[in-house]
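tool_call: predict_structure(chain=1)
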Amino acid sequence: MYKNQNGFSAIEGLLILVIVGIIGFTGWFVWQSNNKVSDNLKGNSSTADFAKTKKSPVDPTANWTSYSSPVGNFTVQYPKTWVTATNPELCTNTELTGMFLLGADSSSVGKCATDGGGQMAITWRTDRTFCGDMEGDAWQQNSKQDVTVGGVKATKIEATAKEVQGIGEPEGTKIAQYCAVANGSTYIAVYTQRSSYPNALDDFNTMVTKTLKFN
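tool_result:
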């Protein structure tokens, strides 16, 4: 048989080329497979990261304290750091009227059986079943809008105290008031922002619109 100068026959040379081709194709195939696996892993990671970003938003009231008034026929939640009035039984004179007093701290909470309503209060009256305006000698009504509280129609009013000698809130005091009629009673949730009080208006609005329920 004819051999070339290097001692290899034509057939042997052809076999070598075939073997080299097979090795090359195998290497290319493995490289392609590894790239696909890597791309799939990246895709799965991206999908997982996207899923994380689509989680439900955190409920700001999740760790709040719950309060239920069997006399007032309502329930509500408020931040754990807030303070409630001592001797709450003194805030309910009869089954017809009463109030639940709150403050962002101990200096802003009202006192039962006094004229001091403090920073926040939820009151109820069965002898009144309507919501009125706050325009008058003591208050400048800034806005009025219809909202929903506890599944019922309510009215939100924002106002500013006028200068009235010897009575009312200091001039410039801001107030936010929600009024709703339910269970044959008129409920009023009111927030007062004096200069000496911590600002808790955002939490107050959340408390009323998200957690106040009428039984």
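agent: The mean pLDDT is 83. Proceeding to next step.
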